[in-house]
Amino acid sequence: MKVSSSGKTRRLPPRDPKGGRPTREMAERLAAHILETALDQFIVHGVDGANMDDIAAAANVSKRTLYARYGSKNGLLVAAAEYGTAKHLRSVVAGIQTGSIRDRILWVARRILDIAVSPKVVGLETLINWVVSRKLGGTGPDRAIGSNASINLIQCLLEEADLADEKEDAPFLAAFLYDALVTVPRTRILVRRDLENAPKAKSAYLEQTMDLIARAVPLLSR
After folding, report:
1. Residue 83 has pLDDT above 50, yes or no
2. Same domain assignment for residues 91 and 18
């Protein structure tokens, strides 16, 4: 069952009928179950509104289990934000196909943009901003959650291509491409509302933007 503001709980992954110590697969499924539930609770109720009692009840686990695994509410929040980012990024990585570097980056940017304007990810972004603004989780948030995870993916694609003289510029170029192809259109869709959240409009915007960038970076030409 999905967690909602009405307080519904999620089903726990089924236990091995033979009993005994949970397998690694079962442990991983339980962790994903807890983090998915916690993420939904934080998104629905906000950081201040969510509490460990309600999260434990929604996940159908004990509060002791949450503290044993994550140490604190903030620890659970960071883990849930990292889980949410990784989950969405995995769906992007899994679909990347062969082709020109331009086509691959455009595909990644479009997929990330589609995800980034979804209501759940808008809620996830609020949590990420809260975590990063308070510098929780050490260096983890800088690498594992938020836009940096997507920028790292674009940088990997650039480094796989024949960058030649541009190789040293890969980190800067990756961040620039992310802002041009994801941050700006997302802002226009959600904040300025002058770009339609429709496949044709997004595709046209990304193609035109990439054409302009390719004038300075021929590697990204058609």
Report:
1. yes
2. no
Six-digit token pair at 102?
A: 């331009």
Domain shared by 150 and 202, yes or no: yes
Q: What is the pLDDT of residue 168?
A: 77
| Residue 108 near residue 157 (C-beta atoms within 8 A) | yes
Tell whether 118 and 203 lie within a shared domain. Answer: yes
Hey, what are 157's tokens?
């694609």
What is d(CA 79, CA 34) in angstroms, rounded to the nearest whole number? 10
DSSP 123-187: HHHHHHHHHHHTTTTTTHHHHHSTHHHHHHHHHHHHHHS--GGGGGGHHHHHHHHHIIIIIHHHH
Give residue 74's identity as a one-letter amino acid code.
N
pLDDT score of 143: 44
Tell me, yes or no, whether 206 and 104 share the same domain: yes
Closest among 210, 30, 173 to 38, alpha carbons compared: 30
